[in-house]
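ok so I'm stuck.
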Amino acid sequence: MSLLADLLAAEGITDETDVEWLHVLVGDWQLIADLSFADLVLWVPASDPTEGFRVVAHCRPTTGTTVYPHDQIGTLAGDEDRVYLRRAADETGVVIVPEATGDLSGAEVVPVVRDGRVLGLITRHTEESRRSGSSRLERYYRSCASMLLSMIAEGAFPDLTAPSGARRGEPRVGDGLIVLNREGRVRYASPNGVSVLHRLGHEDEIEGRYLAEVVSDLIEQMRPVDESLPLVLTGRAPWRAEVESGRVAVTLRAIPLVRAGNRTGALILARDVSEIRRRERELLSRDAMIREMHHRVKNNLQTVSALLRLQTRRMESPEAKDALEEAMRRVSIISVVHDVLSQGVESEVDFDEIVDKGLRLTPELSSPQVQVRLRRTASFGPVSSADATSLALALTELVTNAIEHGFPLTPEQEASGEVLHGCVWVTPEREGDRMHVTVADDGVGLGDEQGPGNGLGTQIVRTLITSDLGGSIQWRPREGGGTEAVIDVPLRVDKT
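replied:
not stuck anymore, here's the structure
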């Protein structure tokens, strides 16, 4: 639950639609603060009537200095301020607080209305020097902010039907502002707004012209554009669109201006996002290249495995066949890792999927008279892609050794056709930044003085665990019979 929702619930505002309305308003009021060169403060009635009103949100402008260096959240209104807050709530209209009156001196109080009900109040606090700013840009900025505040008082802003989840590069006030009249003609364009259109290729004056015509002339030879673009360029709907001309990409956001239910014009925010989109394309290209690389490595390893299989069929020496089959299995498990990596570009992979695929490769190594069940008893979770290959190969070697050496057949058993049954368990445990894995079997065990041996498989496991992963491994008898191989390795973060 967010901080705003907590504060609203503490004051008794729990209706889901009311809370959503205030959330959307607070999510978009940076626009009004920047247009106003002012701080915005959101008040709601306190749960205790004797406390009056309490601040639940505070927004500072990015276009000017703040009036409040410290957040006002949690502040209660003083006795003088309550009078004007209550008046704005009762009259459902904007109230201007006289100078030298309490903490709200010179502020404007705007009721936040939804379906005819006042949910709270916004106060706009402007530096005294900003209230009389005479530049054309400042006059239009403050005028647009006042229109949006009037819409809040009428219950026409925010618009819950407007699309959410904008892409990176959402336009802001300082990026470029274009003000349209009711017909869609440009009444005013900020210097940055003019520059954005110039970068698209427009060279003439823009004020007095239809914005839709200006942009259409720039993109008519291009590929099909977003269907919402005409509505955005005429300011008829609170939507977003993006246009491209050559290597220049501009994102647009339309905010219709409404008074007494009638559309009077619109604000268009424009931003040049060419560099952002270029970087996004580079990242997409890089991600695709990484996935393709892993896919090709997987295919090459599968080709190597197939060649080893063909060579195995031509071998007559049982020892040579066994050696090639072990090599083929090791190549296959590395191929599995690259197969999983080719499906995404995350720095971590779902290691359970890798282990499960690797375990399916091992039962074929045992004799038909030995039926071993393989079980993963817990989840490994995500593992760094830098460690995935070494850890998967080590675990597969341990499971293979458990099957091959834990369930030997005596000559008498081979002759009689007796079937041995067994089980191998792979149990992972995560403790902070370490991975603890136990590979256990219920086979014949190590014997009184028998160690794990010094075969190639054991040497590979020791090298992978101690050198590649920086961990440790030990073998010990399993309680109830069999052997346990216990691995302890640190979990590393993939910084690639």
